[in-house]
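Case study: Acyl-CoA-binding domain-containing protein 4-like.
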Amino acid sequence: MARASSGLAYPERFYAAAAYVGFDGSPNSNDKDIGSRFSNDVALILYALYQQATVGPCNVPKPSFWNPVEQGKWKSGSDDRNVYSERCESFFYLYSWKQLGNMVSAEAMRLFVKILEEEEPGWYSRASNSVLEPVTDVQMNHNAIVEPIIENRNSFAETKTISAENGGLIETQDIDVVSEGLGSVVYDQWTSPPITGQRPKGRYEHAAAVVEDKMYIYGGNHNGRYLSDLHVLDLRSCTWSKVEAKVESKSVETPSPVNITPSAGHSLIPWEHKLLSIAGHTKDPSETFQVKAFDLQIGTWSMLNTYGKPPVSRGGQSVTLVGTTLVIFGGQDAKQTLLNDLHILDLETLTWDEIDAVGVPPSPRSGHAAAVHAERYLLIFGGGSHATCFNDLHVLDLQTMEWSRPTQQGEIPVPRAGHAGVTVGENWFIVGGGDNKSGASETVVLNMSTLAWSVVTSVGGRVPLASEGLSLVVGSLNGEDILISFGGYNGHYNNEVNVLKPSHKSTLQSKIMEGPVPDSVSAVHNATNPTRDLESEFEVGQEGKIRDTAIDNFEPMV
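Here is what the predicted structure looks like once written out:
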């Protein structure tokens, strides 16, 4: 049995964790000690988060020791080399702290505790301090880290974890944790939580959105029939219900109702107190793009009247909210013609604008994914044509309206279409999709600052998470981000809900430890990471020792 801490509140929970790690409260406390207890990368992250939480953003000036004379001592192997090496190591700790920028203290405290729990799940039961916190016996599955959540003291013993071995759902036995809503949270593992209420019928190419503590599902395709039903999953009670929506009349003078056509391949965007359903395939398609609005306050559908020249009707496009505008790219029209045009809808004026961007755009496609980074860069990944699927990455600078195709780093995902993606900070998570032969089994994440891919987890077999046309949203439980997937098609139409909590260690690690960014991504890099403009820095060896690389070209931070 593992022991999982449950109820100690912040900041006490953070201070208990810091004391366990060995920090004594001084600005430079015990960085060498934690370096001997944890791997080098984890030690750097813990040190940086502790300093951020207790001191604030790093305002330490450039170290005075970094000068040509001291560099010469290093390179000549003088008696001062050991001292200089220690100073280099201290500099690297400061650099890691600097990378956290203006992260608020409360967030740093929370991430510090979460990373410690990932490294040592039973840290609290072994802590030497006398602060008592309720603990719960948890049966661990495949070494997954389970974090119980306390809110309304609902107790679930039915959470299922998707095995990375064969994709089957393995019952997590003897879990008797006090938790809320979606049950036990497992780091970097998909789980199928207990759900009550009437589930929506299985579907794919539907659309989903989260508003407050509710996930809305609209439309989709089931057995070749387009759907127009609206369902909501309460993330606190984990209960489905169907929304009995009304249809708004066109006007007082002409009270005939607006025709809300069933659709699939549309997009759902929360905006103010409405859900906007954008485009989509329909049985009798209109000639131009349609935008439907569901008013969450009064429960009615209506059609938005837009101005300017709208795009042609389509489905399988990407729609990305950037500030007060929607950026629409690609898709497939009613004649099955693939598109790669670019349009913007201003949500304040409801005016369309077709964009003639410079550079080489992505090839015509549908079923791709899009995300925005730093409110400036639109990223397009994957998708498919009639003959093939893609795994290319394209970036559109929304200020200069110029396309580029940067070099991807890390473990580049296999080609896919029909996948879904969401962003959490600077990390873009991609789930599902396929190539018409098999589903993509890996859940991957792209650091949008470094354009480096990594694998979060993998499933096996024909499970919903390896489906095409599934949806993916970001929800929140107990203040923590959580990924929620629904539906998809992998030979049958799914209506399962699966959840995953990304570990903070992997995302912070990629931010602090990532090496120099290639020239091909300098446009993104220079605008979003000015403090990382280093030709070369330090690398961390497998033995945890810091070694110097290309000191001649090193330019330390200011």
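For the exam, be able to explain this: The chain has a mean pLDDT of 76.
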